[in-house]
Amino acid sequence: MTSYRHHPDRIAALVQDDRVHRDLYLSEEIFALEQERLFANTWVFLGHASQVPEAGDFVTQEVAGRPLLMVRQPDGAVHVMYNRCAHKGTQLVTDESGNVGRFFRCPYHAWTYKLDGAPLGLPLKNGYEGTQLKACESGQGLSVVKHVKVYRDFVFVRLSDAGPSFEDYFGAVLGAIDNMVDRSPEGKLTVGGGVLRNIVRCNWKMYLENINDTVHPMSTHESATKAAEALWEGHAPTDPKPMAMEQILPFGSGYEFFDKMGGRVFTNGHSVLGVNFSIHSNYAQLPEYEAAMQAAHGAERAADILQRSPQNSVLYPSLSVKGSPQAIRVIRPLAADRTLIEAWSFRAAGAPALLFERAMSYNRLVFSPMSVVAHDDVHLFESIQQGLRAGGNEWVSLHRNFDAAELAQATITTNGTNELLMRNQFRAWAKAMASEVAA
Amino acid sequence: MTGDPRDFVAHEAALLDERRFDDWLALFADNGHYWVPLLGAAQADPFSHNSLAYEDRLLLQLRVDRLKNPRAHSQHPASHSQHVLQPSRIESETGDEVRLRTPFLYVEARGESQILLSGTARHHLAQTPSGWRIREKRLDLLNAGRALPAIQLFI
Ligand code: FES
Ligand SMILES: [Fe+2]
């Protein structure tokens, strides 16, 4: 068994220009190092501010294996703290979400904290007189996450003190969030309809690669698209399609369609797939909504927002955004061979209810544990996880359209079937993993 | 088939476990729906909150047809199901319609893995000249909102 922790050279050797080594997906040691170095040192999506509308509202969520707590403050700010009592470590709340009122009270020995984590009180106070408690960490209240960025209500955290600023880290790919939020004429989204949650027995990176993979739909999704096409046969191209058909049929588009949709990579692993058009481009027009968008944003910006409907935008390493339909996927790694995938839908203030229906319908059809489309993807990811254990070839090919010139460029626009979008993820991975900085 | 709607519910589950999906689909009324709410029993409707599945006959037909395609990759090996039903209880009867609840265990097995789900099936049936037809089959799962592995057949 290779040891990677103290050998940055061995980690770097796993990612070559046009291929990656199987240990990336199989090694539990690599997984532990990813939690420490990649997920702690980069900006990771935690949640959406609309999940905690009122003071005292909280949401619990793990990032990089650490239990966190997102809390709305009396002044309206959103704070993030470690979900750990300063006394002995009890989690202050164990519900997924709720409201704590005006302060936290630990269920174990009843120490209390203000909503921002500052210490409030504890029973039998006299017993602490003359002790070191006040000077110790335990007397300071809850540990807070210092690096929190609320970008248009999307809440991100960086757990480590080291690492790039939020703006430097994401750069131009933040346009994907802008595009989705600006689809609300009022510039406001709220999470709606709950979150669909899937457990997939594969490494998280396979799932993320597939978000940028346009060569697979033809072969992987053949059973679903052929069934849909046969059911829709005989209808004129202009016949109004049921929403489900509007959303499923484009999965059957040919290689040329996916190649021409185009892709773009950015530094730090981010990408946009479908810079020209995508399987979401041809949803029915909504004239009243378009008028509202023009009134809100001006004709030019409104047209720009509505015409751009990329297939997926990846905010590496854990968030994938679909501006239309208004949906995101969040990738939450659980182990080297186990990943939690969440699919969220949004309501856009001032937009017709149909947009929210589209988000829910798309998520249900494509990302539900009972999806008609995802079964084949999931089966293949789980198959890869097993197949890579085979000896012989230890490498995963990412050769498609490799060009040595890409190594020197930060932002590149290219064809939609170029595996550059995946190579770009792994280059960012190698950069983060080679550092020995731990949070 | 006419007669006791409780027998209909048992028959419907048996068709699924025997993988007689075309016969199963024929039990749905033209405007019938199959619904697995994401909030389980707490969910009021399929529109304000999302669902694990909310399908009309068109989508159910798509599912059934997909399973017949040899390139339904996730069905190599194929999944099999077993419904274990408690006796159905009639909730209400009005004219030609009846509503029943049936607590169940559902096992879906494929290769080395097996998943177990539990909950209550709620059938809304209507009497037609050719027997009972399903207006709605609603499945209230315990823990519907938790992370689940792929559920490939029909609960
Ligand atoms: S552990 Fe929280 S008060 Fe003791
Ligand atoms: Fe896919």
UniProtKB/TrEMBL annotation, chain A:
The keyword Oxidoreductase belongs to this UniProt entry's keyword annotation: yes
Record-linked PROSITE patterns: RIESKE
InterPro entries, per the entry: Rieske_2Fe-2S, Rieske_2Fe-2S_sf, Ring_hydroxy_dOase_asu_C_dom, Rng_hydr_dOase-A
Domain Rieske, first and last residues per copy: 43-123
Keywords of this entry: 2Fe-2S, Iron, Iron-sulfur, Metal-binding, Oxidoreductase
Pfam families from the UniProt entry: Rieske, Ring_hydroxyl_A
GO MF entry, a single one: iron ion binding
Protein family according to the UniProt entry: Belongs to the bacterial ring-hydroxylating dioxygenase alpha subunit family.
Name of the featured protein: Rieske 2Fe-2S domain-containing protein
Organism, as annotated: Variovorax paradoxus
Organism placement in taxonomy: Bacteria, Pseudomonadati, Pseudomonadota, Betaproteobacteria, Burkholderiales
From TrEMBL, chain B:
Keyword Oxidoreductase part of the UniProt annotation: yes
Family, similarity comment: Belongs to the bacterial ring-hydroxylating dioxygenase beta subunit family.
InterPro entries: NTF2-like_dom_sf, Rng_hydr_dOase-bsu
Highest taxon listed in the record's lineage: Bacteria
Segments of this protein annotated with the region Disordered: 70-96
Transmembrane spans: none
GO MF annotation list: dioxygenase activity
Keyword Translocase listed: no
Annotated Gene3D superfamilies: 3.10.450.50
Protein name per UniProt: Aromatic-ring-hydroxylating dioxygenase subunit beta
GO biological process, alphabetically ordered: 3-phenylpropionate catabolic process
Swiss-Prot/TrEMBL keywords: Dioxygenase, Oxidoreductase
Leader sequence residues: none
Classification lineage: Bacteria, Pseudomonadati, Pseudomonadota, Betaproteobacteria, Burkholderiales
